[in-house]
Hints:
Layout: H1 3-31, H2 36-48, H3 53-64, H4 67-82, H5 90-105, H6 108-120, H7 127-149, H8 157-172, H9 191-196, H10 198-213, H11 215-227, H12 232-259, H13 262-282, H14 287-295, H15 297-350, H16 353-374
Amino acid sequence: MSIYWRLSNLYFWFFALLGGLLPYWSLYLEGEGYSYLQIATLMATIQFTKIIAPSVWGYLGDRTGQRVRLVRFGAIFGSLFFAGVFLEPGFYGLLLVMLAFTFFWNAILPLYEVITLRSLGKQKEKYGKVRLWGSVGFIGAVGLVGAVLEFVPIQSLPLLLLPVFVGIGISAFLVPSERGERKPAAPEGSLREIVAHPAVITFFVMNFLLQVSHGAYYTFFSIHLEQHGYGKLSIGLLWSLGVIAEIVLFLVMHRLFRRFSVRQIVIGALMLTLIRWALIAEVTDMVPVLILAQCLHAASYGALHAVSVGYIQQVFGKDHHGQGQALYSGLTFGAGGALGAWMSGFLVEGGSTSLAFWGSAAVIAVAVVVTWRGLRLPPSKSETA
């Protein structure tokens, strides 16, 4: 099996789990009788553990060089802790299960991003083609699980996810083992100096606000659609449409990098994200407009993530790449995503799902201002991973 397929395989299964979890887990929790605020709290755990877990695992990966072993460790123990869902532990028990499961599960992706980029070596432009298999896995899982849930109760969701956990475990062991490369005693550059650079601060603030705005989407988009009369298969197809748009974007992203600057791409993507949240908030019943809004996922996630991965690699360099990726995951997807999910719970509990998406649009408006004022080209780094 070629290195391309070995790298793509884990992306496929990792994001297949997201495809089975994100669109339907809030519906599962609603079916279990939890309130909107409880649903928001439980969904926030998926992001909350990213605040700590990536930093812990990223540090271990940088210090030992044993990232593949750590990925396998996270895959195995994440699966074992998820099994606690079948004990029907109640709200607080499920909260602990989700915290434990996601602590190990969230170790996988930041480590694997470093593994992928280093494995590709000088062919880093192929990252998008490797990463798009994650999108394929997401789409496949969303469609298949949504179709099955048209015939079985939503309470069957945990059982439907078990084969995906098996796939993650197997694919983690298909990645060739690394030779341990311990971090030098005196790495080039200071992590503190890199993070304190104004351009880097702006980069993290922008991504933090971006993920705060996604809180309503990842927590209540499915419930929002269900309230407007969409069935589970339709909900799954709409989620899939967003990821299909993301795949198309990944395939042409190299052309955008040649034509536009990083700053232009980021500001343009943020403006499209603002439009997306406003459309979802107000015109959910108009299917063509909702389809357009989902196609804008290519901007709100695809373009901004592709830019951010390259930015992290360029700024943090070889010696701090793992910790830089961990900071990106923890401060943005973790803190930003958790805060956004939790805040959206209050907005839905006290108002409506539409109000939560208007809150997302307001957050993105702030992100546009911050980015316009402060985002510049990253400081040069003499050695990159």
